[in-house]
Amino acid sequence: MKDIQAVIFDLDGTLLYTLDDLTDSINYTMEKYGYPVYTVPQIQSFVGNGLEKLTERALGCRPDNFDEIFNCFKEYYAAHCNEKTKLYDGVKEMIESVKNKYKMAIVTNKNVTALDALRKIYFDGLIEVIIGQSADLNKKPAPDGVFLALQKLGVKKENAIYVGDSEVDVMTAHNSGLPMIACLWGFRSKETLLSCGAKIFAEQPSDVIKILENE
Question: How would you classify residue 35: left for phi > 0, otherwise alpha for psi between -120 and 50, otherwise beta?
């Protein structure tokens, strides 16, 4: 990796711990419509491909009233997306350090309503370019969001690196042609990330800085 000018971050599991609020919101929806509820580890295994896929995995199917159920979940989550959500320890310091030398963006499959609320709380004044789910973009692992972020930053893909925590992120980085730093504090194990092709690992947020400086 040479001449890195921009760092593209995933959101859930990379910068923010969001599992408890996602679990509570899914379980509220499941109970309302008569479906079984889930533990946090079970929801952890479902996340990574956006809220629609999370809902589908929780239901185990796409019933005729899927849109109604999904809208219920989206609305509840948007209203309760920051009850238990928090930055991972060391992430704020890492972002502030990265900001001193590199351009930054977030690319996530999270829907815009919840994303707008979280960006104002956690990233206002820190990260200007934040790309969420949109009808105009294919979701990760498609590279569309990464390419849009790079366009907004004015950086070529040859001068960028991706930071994420899941197999979806490994595939996103690959599809975008970016090297990747895989975060081990997130939603997937090192073994899972290795099996997907991850090669560079950060055990804690401060390691991202060390990797960027050394590489």
Answer: beta
